[in-house]
Specification:
It comes from Neorhizobium huautlense. This protein is 27% helix and 38% strand. With 162 residues, it is an alpha+beta fold. The chain has a single domain (4-157), classed as Hotdog Thioesterase (Thiol Ester Dehydrase, Chain A). Strands 2, 3, 5, 6, 7 and 8 form a 6-stranded antiparallel sheet that branches. It has a two-stranded parallel ribbon with strand order 1-4.
Length: 162
């Protein structure tokens, strides 16, 4: 269950891990659906027999971009709701690195540490998270990086000390 926080509480959370998602299984159906949506049908993603025979992974793996896209669901499930938020927007990613392939059937989960939060203009809060996606029973994460989002709110809700 997601909990709520106020805009004035956000600054106090900088430097802390504020969300860890539930485990999510990346199965072949998910990978195939993503391949169809992106028209990326490289055999290491969609052909289990060929991937087992010709790749170093022993089978198919998830697309890196599929792994990134799952951050949205992980974020929604695990990060607190900002009570005054009227809309949220992606601003971008920095320093994305794919540390380990996500093999088909693996379970993954996201970790979110609030790195920075700063008010911009009268009605925006820019938040930057250090992110990682952990693979169950693997030493290296599937990915690491930095994700910046924008929280929009009614200007009347801006904290006075912001």
């Amino acid at each position: 269950m997601r909990h709520e926080i106020s805009l004035r509480d956000v600054k106090d959370l900088v430097g802390t891990e504020i969300g860890v998602s539930s485990w999510m299984t990346v199965d072949q159906t998910m990978i195939d659906t993503f391949a169809d949506a992106t028209n990326d049908h490289q055999f290491i993603h969609v052909d289990p027999e060929r991937a087992a025979a010709e790749s170093p992974f022993g089978g198919t793996i998830a697309h890196g971009f599929l792994t990134i896209s799952l951050l949205s669901a992980m974020n929604y499930e695990s990060l607190p709701v900002i009570r005054e938020q009227t809309m949220g927007l992606n601003y971008g990613f920095d320093h994305i690195r794919f540390g380990s392939p996500v093999k088909t059937g693996s379970r993954i989960r996201g970790h979110f540490t609030l790195k920075e939060a700063r008010f911009r203009g009268g009605a925006m809060l820019m938040t930057t998270y250090d992110i990682s996606i952990e693979i169950e029973n693997e030493k290296k994460p599937a990915l690491t990086g930095s994700w910046t989002t924008i929280v929009q709110f009614d200007p009347k809700d801006r904290p006075e000390d912001a």
